[in-house]
Amino acid sequence: MKRCPACKIDYFDEMLEFCLDDGAKLVLISGSANEINAAKTSNKQSPTSSETVNLTTKKTPEIFELKGANREIQVQTSPPPETISSNLLEEKVNSQSFKVLEIAPIIISLAHNWWQWVYLHNQYYYSFTTYVFSANFLMWLLLLVTGIVVGLLVLKYCPNKGYAYTGLVVLAINLLLFLVPKG
What we know:
Blueprint: E1 2-3, E2 10-11, E3 27-28, H1 33-42, E4 60-67, E5 72-78, H2 81-120, H3 128-132, H4 135-157, H5 162-179
Antiparallel strand pairs: 1-2, 1-3, 4-5
Helix pairs in contact: 2-4, 2-5, 4-5
């Protein structure tokens, strides 16, 4: 058994080194088992509500300020840990989404370029309507529109705009090469 020399509280946990009330170093008390049991039963008083600490609050105090002549205390609290971890997770997901979104315009423009040279370059159709409604042309058109839309979204919302500019330039060159008559 250990006792606090300052407040005279007995502790039966041999692992404790300091008093939980005032922080003083505990002193080892030698005694018989009967004395310790008697001390245990005599010290079993339930604490009053003013002595207990409520640990169920979700907000922890962060900053204390003294204000005014009457010294009223203003407490600013930080958000609960669940909110912090969900905010960090949300930030991480958003930053990774931005990275994927930043790379998307160049990938789409390169896919559009590949589709144009592999499927549309030497394709011959009987009429204009069969050419426009062919699967190859519709896929080319879909890649063009998607590349432009994603490039513009990246320019508006993402901090890194280099891939968006490059992708839009590649799409513009592909469109010009498509429109120029083949000699």
